[in-house]
């Protein structure tokens, strides 16, 4: 019996690796570090940790729901994947423009948990790309590898965000601001790409 379980686990490794690699590339927690720093630069260290804690929980639960239920969630609300991509792309575009013009996501009356949930948890960590990738993984590699890939990815995200203060102190306020604005340009380009893909899928 134990040998059969071991064989099942070994057979699952290639699919699990595919799920982890595809999802990590889309979520890109390392590449988004400057954006996370830019969004939380006005916060204290305690508030920043609260925001990142909320971001990890929000992103994990959201992506886990799609890993388990797939497209049924969107179908329940009568939303197509292209429409979701357009809406998510529009939100990302607004975020990137605010970072470029204002210098960050400054909402003085909003709690760190709220900023952690939106926009860090969604749509920066878990956006249309991550959700679409999870839905496709569910169809291609199956339920268990998809769920495990989500668990592993967000364990990695938690570790990265746990030590982000070290990165912030290393870059300094000016360095973080410059890098955040540069990365905001890439986020804007990704947002436009989501919108264009959503429009193309809608009409084709």
Concise summary:
Helix content is 84%, strand content 0%.
Form type = globular
Average pLDDT value? 81
Major beta sheet summary: none
Strand content: under 5%
The value of Rg in angstroms is: 18 Å
The percentage helix is over 70%
Count of the domains: 1
Task: Provide the fold topology.
Blueprint: H1 2-27, H2 33-40, H3 45-69, H4 72-76, H5 81-101, H6 112-125, H7 128-140, H8 143-162, H9 164-203
Helix pairs in contact: 1-7, 1-8, 2-9, 3-6, 3-7, 3-8, 5-9, 7-8
Would you kindly provide a written description of the structure presented here, covering whatever features stand out?
The chain is globular, with a radius of gyration of 18 Å. The mean pLDDT is about 80. The protein starts with a helix and ends with a helix. The protein has helices at about 1-25, 35-40, 45-70, 70-75, 80-100, 110-125, 130-140, 145-160, 165-204. Helix content is about 85%, strand content about 0%. It has one domain (about 15-204). The chain is mostly helical and about 200 residues long. Helix 2 crosses helix 9 (about 165-204) and helix 3 (about 45-70) runs parallel beside helix 7 (about 130-140).
Please tag this protein with its features.
84% helix; 0% strand; globular; mainly alpha; 204 residues
């Amino acid at each position: 019996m134990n040998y059969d379980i071991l064989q099942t686990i070994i057979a699952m490794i290639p699919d699990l690796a595919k799920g982890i690699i595809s999802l990590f590339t889309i979520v890109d927690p390392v590449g988004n570090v400057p954006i996370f720093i830019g969004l939380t630069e006005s916060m204290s260290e305690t508030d920043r940790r609260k925001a990142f804690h909320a971001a990890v929980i929000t992103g994990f639960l959201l992506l886990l729901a799609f890993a388990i239920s797939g497209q049924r969630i969107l179908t329940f609300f009568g939303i197509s994947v292209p429409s979701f991509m357009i809406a998510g792309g529009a939100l990302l575009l607004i975020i990137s423009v605010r970072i470029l013009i204002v210098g960050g996501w400054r909402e003085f009356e909003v709690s760190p948990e709220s900023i952690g949930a939106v926009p860090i948890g969604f749509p920066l960590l878990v956006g249309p790309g991550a959700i679409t990738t999870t839905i496709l993984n569910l169809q291609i590699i199956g339920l268990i590898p998809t769920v495990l890939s989500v668990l592993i990815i967000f364990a990695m995200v938690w570790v990265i965000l746990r030590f982000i203060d070290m990165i912030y102190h290393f870059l300094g306020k000016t360095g973080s601001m410059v890098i955040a604005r540069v990365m905001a340009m890439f986020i804007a380009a990704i947002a436009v790409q989501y919108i264009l893909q959503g429009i193309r899928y809608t009409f084709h």
